[in-house]
Amino acid sequence: MPKNEKLKSILIIGSGPIVIGQACEFDYSGTQALRSLREDGIETILINSNPATIMTDPSMADHVYLKPLNTKSIVEILKEHPQIDAVLPTMGGQTALNLCIEANEKGIWEDFDVELIGVDIDAINITEDREQFRELMLKIGIPMAPQATANSYLKGKEIAQEFGFPLVIRASYTLGGAGASFVHKEEDFDKLLTRGLEVSPIHEVMIDKALLGWKEYELELLRDKNDNVVIICTIENMDPMGIHTGDSITVAPAMTLSDKTFQRMRDMAIHMMRSIGDFAGGCNVQFAVSPDEKEDIIAIEINPRVSRSSALASKATGYPIAKIASKLAIGYTLDEVSNQITQSTSALFEPTLDYVIVKIPRWNFDKFEGSDRTLGLQMKSVGEVMGIGRSFQEALHKATQSLEIKRNGLGADGKGYKNYDQIIEKLTYASWDRVFVIYDAIQMGIPLSRIHEITKIDMWFLKQYEELYNLEKEISTFTVQSLSKGLLLEAKQKGFADRQIAHMLNCYESEVYKKREELGVKRVYKLVDTCAAEFKAATPYYYSTFEEEIKTKEGETLISNESEVSDRKKIVVLGSGPNRIGQGIEFDYCCVHGVLAAAECGYETVMINCNPETVSTDFDTADKLYFEPVFWEHIYDIIRHEKPEGVIVQLGGQTALKLAEKLDRYGIKVLGTSFQALDLAEDRGSFSTLLKENNIPYPEFDTAETADEALAVADRLNFPILVRPSYVLGGQGMKIVINKQELEEHVVDLLRKIPNNKLLLDHYLDGAIEAEADAICDGENVYIIGIMEHIEPCGIHSGDSNATLPPFNLGEFVMQQIKDHTKKIALALNTVGLINIQFAIKDDMVYIIEANPRASRTVPFIAKAYGEPYVNYATKVMLGDKKVTDFDFKPRLEGYAIKQPVFSFNKFPNVNKKLGPEMKSTGESILFIDDLKDDEFYDLYSRRKMYLSK
């Protein structure tokens, strides 16, 4: 039982829909917290409006409320559950903290006699109110940058006059650096000050003297009620001050910090945490360090909650911060909680890493046309990846290979920049691809001293890059036949992919792979064990690396591989990689459910993924976790090592689906729908032919592979025409064109970005209603799990539409056509598992827009709305364990559920906010209404055409 016996029932506040600055790391921490509290027999009540997450799964909490995150919902829940003793708001990001403060100000916690645990109100207020925080830091002797608070335009002008430029403006009570900016010149100050004051909910900004070029560090701390404090992880930002930590490339452990300065920083962090309040839980502290010999330390901020960095630190160290933080919040002390990884030591220890981790953010600027792509104080990334290696170079390469931006790593892929001015520009104004541009600059011969002068990135990191380039140069002088084992091994230890080595040697990737096999240069797997192998780890959480063989005195050659393969039947589930617009947390939800379902069928489950924010990469979700890039070479080696029965690709979004062809070519079984059927649905032309053969209506169409062909097609079809490339996700590159000039411009642009693609041109059904259906098929029977009608007209991407379940104004005749078409298509594609089909309805005729034989964005939404574990059922069908007819489907929903998209346009003030066939939303929430007279439904319906654009 918990040490605080009074706590029997706890309310947890989630973080709501995913927005830039607050993503699925809170789904991960919230899920861990719920599991942790339930282990102690505590009743858990959760409020969160996000249907796409594991956190809101009925199996996670005793009571899940998919309600809007406001005080009205909190009061409703507290009335329904008078037994709630406490609220834990530290697992839901800034949204939860802000809601907790609002409820406190309204006296709600007091009225219902609810205790606040994991943090206290004073701590939140002190850390959010920059003036209060500054005063406290100066009082306890912690240095801060010169700064002052302004709550009016006039006061802001006075401060700027006193400090001089450059300056930093930060808005109070905001998240992800919203409203923050650098001001280099006086003429920009007025506009940026006004924006900061407007963004802050209390119309207050803090103006700091800018610490340009200083190094930035983050520390993750945990404290218990006895005031024991442990520092879980020290993270160094490769990018210096001036770029939001969520947009920075970060490294753990810290690489360029002297031990003396590290000890000072530790002491300061502990002193700061103890000074902000008397609470047990987690904390994240950020510091700036001067880049000279003095290494002066200045405090930037402290967050008394789990954060984006705590998810990263948890995955980097294997220490489950959110899980332990929840134990501390209910009264345990660190020495009473066991270390989850070793299971033989306590949690009162500081992890030691015998490997390096590198996190790189993932951006989606292509979705925000006209956006400012330079990085600064306001976070702009939509996700992140993490690479684990034995050296910084190996981890950096693995992280770049995980990004899925058509790069094979640093350099050696022919895609680097060659223009001197362009390279200097991208280094000067920190660009999203600066991690690659540094390599290009070295390749061009720009001296390291010049790169350092421009970027202020520490020389140590730049020298690591230089070593990589020198190795590339050396390897390029050989052929695949003459390359020595020593050089090949060094390239692999530094993280170069076979594809990159093939580029250097001017040969095929398969030839490099064969050479590695011949020379015995093979991947080995190491455990992430939190304690540098000092104690035996009991958790199967692995990363790959390459090792030199050792000869024993008996003459045997040895290589240490810590991943032991069992003789059980195994299934590999491919994860969805980094979050991005069009492929978000809903696929992580599907992967986790797939893993759990396969385990129920008696399989050993193996998860491969590289996203540190997700539940699928939690060390106890699958039987074995490989924290590796979802990149062919890594996957193939794991499969050869584990020898599974097959691989599930239809739960990991487009990332996993794209690997189906290779798996099929290499004779690896794709479980569920075959690669041929997946490919048929992806290839727009072949799919339309299949519809024709089955007498299923579709808009008039034709395919084109050049601009000339597209113009010839336009003569046969009437404008407007919808142009769609094959094999893309989130509507990438889709556009409605209304004349030949627009058509030609768009096709030329598309084929430049996606060469050799087959484009589908179809007549756009203007004014049509859009609907979609998800179904499970076992090859013989089809069960439709849900049919949704979009409130917005056809032409707005389904991910950006308000989808209503069940449909609200489709007649019996239309509904029957949807059901018939869905069943016919699912069977014609030989679907085994999930399928999503989208329809356009005009004049009571149902036309097919597209079909995706995989998990879709809407599956978690339908599962939550109907209270049925559809992914579990579909996985059992994929594995051949069950038929559709074996399940007793009992969907329950009174009234309607609406999937509402959420956008992050406020991060890009100058961007065109119109919606069209290309998806732009970053997340979603779920809204339940009793009937169509509901005001919110009426409001959505009345605005349905407002944002439609080409």
TrEMBL record:
GO molecular function: carbamoyl-phosphate synthase (glutamine-hydrolyzing) activity
Gene3D superfamilies (alphabetical): 3.40.50.20, ATP-grasp fold, A domain, ATP-grasp fold, B domain, Carbamoyl-phosphate synthetase, large subunit oligomerisation domain
Origin: domain of life: Bacteria
Keywords: ATP-binding, Ligase, Nucleotide-binding, Repeat
Catalytic reactions of this protein: hydrogencarbonate + NH4(+) + 2 ATP = carbamoyl phosphate + 2 ADP + phosphate + 2 H(+)
Broadest EC class assigned to this enzyme: ligase
The EC number(s) this enzyme carries: 6.3.4.16
PROSITE patterns, alphabetized: ATP_GRASP (PS50975), CPSASE_1 (PS00866), CPSASE_2 (PS00867), PROKAR_LIPOPROTEIN (PS51257)
SMART domains: CPSase_L_D3, GARS_A
Protein's UniProt keywords contain tRNA processing: no
Sequence ranges assigned to domain ATP-grasp in this UniProt record: 134-330, 688-879
Alphabetized InterPro entries for the sequence: ATP-grasp, ATP_grasp_subdomain_1, CarbamoylP_synth_lsu_oligo_sf, CPAse_ATP-bd, CPSase_dom, CPSase_lsu, CPSase_lsu_oligo, CPSase_preATP-grasp
Protein family membership: Belongs to the CarB family.
Protein name: carbamoyl-phosphate synthase (ammonia)
Organism: Aquimarina hainanensis
